[in-house]
Amino acid sequence: MTNYFLNDMQYAFLLGRNSDAPLCGCSCHIFAEYHAPDADLYQIQSAWKQLGNRHPVLHSVISESGEVTFADPENFMQYLKLYDLSDFSAEEAEQQYQQSAELYRTRNMNIHSGEILILHVFLMPEGVRFCFEGDCIAFDITSYQIFIHDFSRLYAGDTLPELPSDFHPYEFTPVSPERKKADRHYWQAKASDYGAFPAESYPLPSHSHFTAHTRILSAEIYQKLHLFAQMHDTEIEILLLTLFSKAFSEITSFSHFVLNIPVLDRKQLPARYARTGGEYTALLMTDININPALTIETQLSEIAEIYQNDCAHTGISGMKIQKILKKQNHYYDYHVTFSSHIGIDMNDSVIQNSIGILQSLVTQTPRVIMDSEFFLSDGNLLISLVTPDNVFPEGMENRLLHEFAMLAEKITKEKKS
Asked: Which tens digit of pLDDT belongs to each residue from 254-298?
């Protein structure tokens, strides 16, 4: 494997984890927990080894300077951790598990030694718990989903199609100088009209505990939302963005604001890399202007146009976009993110039959005041808002989730009528 250096967005994660600035000192971290009735330890080891052999990015070692090297693939087995709590009483085992899980849900992994994906397997009196812990400095969340998807199938004994043996980091995707120049002009022209940033209105602690607030909308509602988006000639992700923006505006009283939107779109990749792990995220700083007088349909059309135009100008990175905004006196140092990961179901039938039922999913990112993530779980829409404690007014996150659900139910009922 050829060594390389982190791109500027990845390097920002590296700086954020080592900074004492507000909402820093944490990594770009993700943790998913599954419960299953039993486990085959030999098959777990075999599947884990195959997963490491399949995805070279899992051997990444990140230096303090941001250089990425690759460890011996055999080292990957040390990141399969087994905890045998089966002889404890149910109460004692649960207490031990919760203490460990609380540590692993939000922490800085040792990326300098190669800790970027760890599988914690807890043998409990009543079954087994699979906990996938990842640091997304070397790969995006879509990659993390692919890892769980692949592991579950390897554990089930399936044979997966071969992937290319070489590694294709995002920053190696060629962008012409002409496109970079045109895209820079696009963002410079937009910058003067950007709205306020929500984080500026809230107290920002230097260090904080993060809590995940979740809401699940049924598979039936999700399918109706999908149909609604199709009827209005747009993508389901744009509809979710529109509903989230309207709910956020209603709860916070911001009508003109900026959302940090990671775009995890593999469509621009060569087909052979579509199922590989790596950092393929473009980052948008999208200006949202909500008009309460507009119908959902009209607002959807406006946001779709803005989003599609922004996506067409990702020849420069999100970090460079932020620098352009700063030159216009827009200081967006702390972010509210919207990120959709609905391309891969986190709890499809194969996952359920091999590693069990998804119980929780927690994300965390430096300088993010609200991490808004949308996933599919067994066909249901799982919404996760991860926020630092004691920043937003008490209960605001749950009110936002409730408002989103009400908007979703409203348009699906209107469609039905």
From this structure: 898 889 998 877 777 778 888 888 887 888 889 999 999 999 999
Calculate mean pLDDT across residues 213-222: 96
d(CA 145, CA 159): 18
Q: Which two tokens stand for residue 165?
A: 């043996």
CATH 3.30.559.30 fits 175-416, yes or no: yes
179 Cβ contact list (under 8 Å, min separation 6)? 315
Q: Which residues make Cβ contacts (< 8 Å) with residue 11, sequence separation at least 6?
A: 5, 66
pTM of the full structure:
0.93
Ranges of beta strands (E only) in 251-356 are 256-263, 282-289, 335-345
The reply to whether 175-416 shares the fold of 4-155 is yes
Report yes or no: 194 and 330 within 8 Å, Cβ to Cβ: yes
pLDDT in tens, 151-166: 999 999 999 999 887 7
Q: Which two tokens stand for residue 363?
A: 């994300």
In the block, residue with structure tokens 């098959």: 43
Strand intervals (E) in 144-270: 210-217, 256-263
Mean pLDDT, range 103-131, rounded to an integer: 95
CATH superfamily, domain at 4-155: Chloramphenicol acetyltransferase-like domain (3.30.559.10)
- Token digits for 134? 């990842």
Q: Nearest 5°: CA angle at 223, between 220 and 225?
A: 110
Q: Per-residue confidence at 417, pLDDT binned at 50, 70, 90?
A: very low
- Looking from the CA of 394 toward its CB, the CA atoms found within 13 Å total 0
Q: Where are the domains of the chain?
A: 4-155, 175-416
> Tens digits of per-residue pLDDT, 34-52?
999 999 999 999 999 999 9
What residue spans of 65-176 are helical by DSSP H?
90-105, 141-155
